[in-house]
Every structure is written in C-alpha cells, then in structure tokens.
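Thread: "does anyone have the structure for this chain?"

Original post by V.I.:
We have the sequence but no experimental structure in hand. Need at least a predicted one for the grant figures.
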Amino acid sequence: MSEEKRIILISDFIEQKLRKERELEFYEKELKELTVKIGFLRREVHLTNTIINMIKSENVVDFKEQLLANENKDKQIPLPLKKDKDE
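Reply from O.Q.:
Generated one for you, tokens below.
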C-alpha cells in the first residue's frame, strides 16, 4: 500500500471520529433536555393523580371556606378561664 493511500485512510477515520463526537455531544444535550422535561411531566402526573384521588375520596379542602373559618376563629373573644374554688 502506498504512503498516499495510508494518509487518506487515516484522515477519513479522523473525520469520521470527529463527526461521531459532534453527534454524540448533540444527543447528550438532547438527552439532558428530555430528562428535565420527563421530570416535570412526572411531577404533573403525580399532582393530577393526587387531585383525582382527593376528588374520588371526597377529601377536597375548600381553601376559601377554611380561610374564612380560621379568620372567624381568630376574631372570637376568648372566654376567661374558670377558676377552681380551691385556688
């Protein structure tokens, strides 16, 4: 094999290696982005399932009603404590 053919083959391998490295970098970046998206989607699915389960078990808390109840509780004047006759 001549020296010229050997050089061409080596340069072809180097070009192929560089092309594959760039392709690998591209897919690794895409994989990272997809992994983040999968994480968000899993959290959304979990939240949706939690909401569905709350509705099914009628365990839904009406936050407005709860807030008003807490406000009314805070506005009530506490009654004085009864003292025992022994004290």
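V.I.: this helps a lot. The chain has one domain: 3-75.
O.Q.: and The first helix runs from residue 3 to 56.
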